[in-house]
Amino acid sequence: MKYKVFNYITVFFSLALVTTSCVDNEDLNQVDPNVETAGSFWKTDQDAIEGVNAAYGSLLTDGTYMRSTPLLLDLKGDDTRSNSPWGAMYNVGRFNSNPTDPAIYGWAFETYYQGIYRANQVLTNVPEIQFEDAALKNRILGQAYFLRGLYFFHAVNMFKNVPLPTEIKLYTPQKTEAEGWAQVIADFKAAAELLPTSYDAITGIDKGQKGRATKGAALGYLGKAYLFTKDFANAKTTFKQVIDLGVYSLVSNYRDNFTTTNENNSESLFEVQFSRDAGGVDLGWGGAPASGWGKTSARAITYAPRAFGWTDVQPSWTLFNEYQQEKTKTNAVDPRLDATIFYNKPGGMQLYGKDFATFYATSPADLNDIFCRKYQNSDGQFADEYDWRSGINERLLRYADILLMYAETLNETGDTPGAYTYIQMVRNRVNLPDLATAKPGMNQAQMRDQIGHERFLEFPLEGHRFDDIRRWGWLQDATKLAWLKTRDVEFNSYAPGREYFPIPQLEMDNNPGTKQNDSY
After folding, report:
1. What is the DSSP string of 61-123?
2. pLDDT in tens for each of the 520 residues of the chain?
3. Which segments constitute the RagB/SusD domain (predicted)?
4. What are the distances in angstroms from CA 252 to CA 218, 256, 332?
């Protein structure tokens, strides 16, 4: 789906200076006939589609998936490290974001609420539009609920106590974390009721369009919200609903989830659509989309190996070493290592058409270092990432995640033996041995640790690891926290409360009564 640009809620008032007669105040307010207003815009089904497209547009900016949100999700985990020269980025993984400097985390906060506002525009105005196709109307409303739920999900998950605007008004008070999760759940429930399983078999102007939210995406995120709030019974039921849809499966090549090859594949429940061919050349740093936007991602250049981009994010050595703890059935290294990390591999490894060992031969520090491979345009078709224009879609939710989260809910609800089946489905793709044979009869606590290990190797650099660490309570467990410190020295900077980002100062100043998060 290509995102269009719409400017439809700006109203200009013309004031006429009248000196020869008396006029009423309302006569002074004139709508510019050349400018579309909220009152004149929401009239047709095409207007409704364009309105919800604008809500998708907030996924493309620097604050969200162009760059900032992946950074905020990745850098606090033990799968990554950063030596970025930019303090705002460097300090994310060290739990030291500055409340007075909103760079990166503040941009994310702002953009989530931009997306929420746009979704609220749809949910407020579309019900009043007369549609010939009621199913189309439901799909548009379902997408708006999904997108609002997704933006709320990020806001609550990263900032804890946040406003929860569900209608269009100037001020919305800060709410509790529990209230936030309740709203997230309500939105995803509403979305799941209204959305189709796919857009291929429908009729309407959105037929066949890739990238729009589906029932599976809404159920997947609903299950995540239940899981994050430890409602394991409802999470289990919801994940099973996704599985029972029968439309998702793991792709055979793990790496196809992180390149332009095979985008929107059978494993993808929801991904943000980026394209080098979408038109425009400007980067979407923020604000309303402009006609010159390229709809491209800056993740690749930010995470790229040395000399091919900025190398602001690198994998941790803990991740590199953990990939080699268990060999495949043919005694090979877990193939996810090569799909995730560039390194000086015996026998050679190619990056951007260059041999790793040859390219870094004169730089021993780089030759003996490791770099990110996921989400890199590094297969030889491009020389580097310095054009800032990656077209790789950001995969937000994969079926592998559904399978491992379902296994987790089985374990947490007393069916530890049942968890083996769904874990093994993910292991089978990379030819790892049967877990039931390798580690038979695990108890619930042992299975929890095993699921932690499985998720660590399946989802690094995908924004899941720190979410897992936080929701599992490892930061409040002295033993687990000490273990994390041995794996990633950045955890030595952790202080209670710093698992969340600060509320941006601008929000504190502009929204009366807002309280800062603990520890800031």
Report:
1. STTTTTTHHHHHHHTTSTTEE---SSHHHHTTTTT---TT--TTHHHHHHHHHHHHHHHHHHH
2. 433 333 333 322 222 222 333 445 454 455 555 555 666 799 999 999 999 999 999 999 999 999 999 999 999 999 999 999 999 999 999 999 999 999 999 999 999 999 999 999 999 999 999 999 999 999 999 999 999 999 999 999 999 999 999 999 888 999 999 999 999 999 999 999 999 999 999 999 999 999 999 999 999 999 999 999 999 999 999 999 999 999 999 999 999 999 999 999 999 999 999 999 887 888 888 776 677 888 899 999 999 999 999 999 999 999 999 999 999 999 999 999 999 999 999 999 999 999 999 999 999 999 999 999 999 999 999 999 999 999 999 999 999 999 999 999 999 999 999 999 999 999 999 999 999 999 999 999 999 999 999 999 999 999 999 999 999 999 999 999 999 999 999 999 999 999 999 999 999 999 989 999 999 9
3. 267-520
4. 25, 8, 17
Can you tell me whether residue 397 is helix, strand or coil? strand
The residue behind tokens 């857009």 is 199
Contacts of 308 (CB under 8 A, 6+ apart): 351, 352, 376, 378, 384, 385, 386
- 487-495 long-range contacts (CB < 8 A, ≥24 apart) are 487/78, 487/316, 487/318, 488/77, 488/78, 488/81, 488/316, 488/318, 490/76, 490/81, 490/93, 490/94, 490/95, 491/78, 493/94, 493/95, 493/96, 494/95, 495/95, 495/519
Q: What angle do CA 320, 248, 147 make, to 5 degrees?
A: 85
Instruction: Annotate 290-328 with three-state secondary structure.
Output: CCCECCCECHHHHHCCECCECCCCEECHHHHHHCCCCCC
Look at the chain and report how many structural domains it folds into: 1
Instruction: Provide the greatest CA pair distance for the chain.
Output: 94
Q: Does a structural domain hold residue 370?
A: yes
Question: What is the spatial distance between Cα 19 and Cα 215, in angstroms, rounded to a whole number?
Answer: 61
Residue 20 domain flag: no
**Residues 322, 488: Cα–Cα separation, whole Å:** 13
Tokens of 237: 């039921």
Backbone angles phi, psi at 315, to 5 degrees: -70, 155
Under DSSP, is residue 199 helix (H, G, I), strand (E, B) or coil? coil
Instruction: Answer yes or no: is 348 within a domain.
Output: yes
Domain of residue 380: give its range: 299-389
Name the β-bridge partners of 293.
Answer: 282
- Asked if the structure places residue 379 within a domain, the reply is yes
Distance CA 373, CA 359 (A): 16
